[in-house]
Amino acid sequence: MNVKLYNQNGEEIGTVELKPELFEVEPNEALVHQYIVNYLARQRQGNASTKGRTDVRGGGRKPWRQKGTGRARAGTIRSPLWRGGGIVFGPKPRSYGSNLPRKMKRCAIRSVFSDKARSERIKVLDRIELEETKTKAFVNMMTKLDIEGKKCLVLDETPNEKLVLSCRNVPRVKYCRAALTNGYDVLNADYVVCTKAGLEKLQEVFG
What we know:
Elements: E1 2-6, E2 12-17, H1 20-23, H2 29-43, H3 102-118, E3 122-125, H4 135-144, E4 152-156, H5 161-167, E5 173-177, H6 183-188, E6 191-195, H7 196-206
Parallel strand pairs: 1-3, 3-6, 4-5, 4-6
Antiparallel strand pairs: 1-2
Helix pairs in contact: 2-3, 4-5
C-alpha cells in the first residue's frame, strides 16, 4: 500500500510505501477491545485505601462487661458494626490492569494502524522542522494539511523540542515518539500525522 508524501506546506512531493505487516492486517475488533480495556485499566491510579479494624486507632478496652447489662455483648468500640469502626473488605492500593501477552498487544496495534490506513487517515510528511517555537506555526501547518481542528496524533522519531512545545497547547493534538506509541492513542485520533523517520521506526518496532 502506498500513501502520499507531503511537505510542511501541504504539497504532495511523492509517495511512500507502507509495510503490509503493519498496515494491511485484517483488524481483530475483539482483540482491540480487550487491549483498550486493559490499557485504560492500567491508567487507573488504584490508590484508594481504607482502614480495617486493626488499623483504626483505639478500641483496646472492652466497652462494658460481657453479662448483666442487658445490652449486646461487645469487645471493641472499633468493630465494623460501630460508627468510627474499621471498614470490612474496603479498597486497598492495587493495580487494575491484567497481564496481556506481548503478541496480543502487537496484534491489536497492527489492527488499529491497518484500520487507519484503510480509511486513509494517515498523513506522512518528509519532516517537521519549525523555525521557531510557536503554536501558530504548527496550526498553520495543520491547516495546509487540511486537518485543522481534528484529533491528531503526531509521531516523530528524532527529539524535536520545538515541535513538542508548539503543539502541546493545541486542543485535540497529542505528540508522541513513534517507538512509544500505543493503540489507544492511535484509535482515539482522527488522523495520524507522522514523519518519514517516524514511519520507518513504526514499521521497525511494530512491523
